[in-house]
């Protein structure tokens, strides 16, 4: 399993490329929405993207070729 951690700078560079993939587009969107600690993992036939912002942690599975969202769940930390 290959894991890649993107920083804001890397995501901006990816977003400005002429031929951005659906995964790169998603990472750029998450960065523009203020998400940090973005982690991208290649799995069996899909890519899993996780991020963090103000207690919210989206867990998104995407088809890397078509850009189809296979799963989109967000964990929210609740204040006790």
Q: Can you describe this structure?
A:
The chain is of the alpha+beta class and 80 residues long. It has one domain (3-76): Nuclear Transport Factor 2, Chain: A (Roll). The protein has helices spanning 8-15, 22-32; strands at 3-6, 36-42, 47-52, 56-62, 69-76. A five-stranded antiparallel beta sheet has the order 1-2-3-4-5. Helix 1 crosses helix 2 (22-32). The N and C termini lie far apart (36 Å). Mean pLDDT is 80; it is low at 6-16.
Brief summary:
24% of the residues lie in helices and 40% in strands. The chain has 80 residues and is α+β, with helices and mostly antiparallel strands.
CATH architecture type: Roll
* Shape annotation: globular
Record field, number of beta strands: 5
The stretches of 5 or more residues where confidence is low (pLDDT under 50) are 6-16
Mean pLDDT: 80
Number of helices: 2
Structure class: alpha+beta
Order of strands across the biggest sheet? 1-2-3-4-5
Name of the top-level CATH class = Alpha Beta
Helix content: 10-25%
Radius of gyration: 12 Å
Count of discrete domains: 1
Largest pleated sheet: 5 strands, antiparallel
Order of helices and strands, N to C? Answer: EHHEEEE
The CATH topology annotation reads as Nuclear Transport Factor 2, Chain: A
Query: What fraction of residues sit in β-strands?
Result: 35-45%
List the quaternary state of the chains.
single chain
Cα separation of the termini: 36 Å
């Amino acid at each position: 399993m290959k894991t890649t951690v993107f920083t804001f700078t890397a995501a901006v560079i990816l977003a400005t490329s002429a031929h951005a993939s659906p995964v790169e587009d998603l990472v750029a969107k998450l960065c523009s929405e203020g998400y940090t600690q973005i982690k991208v993992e290649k799995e069996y036939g899909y890519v899993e993207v996780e991020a963090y912002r103000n207690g919210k942690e989206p867990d998104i599975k995407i088809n890397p070729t078509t850009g189809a969202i296979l799963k989109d769940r967000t964990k929210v930390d609740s204040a006790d």
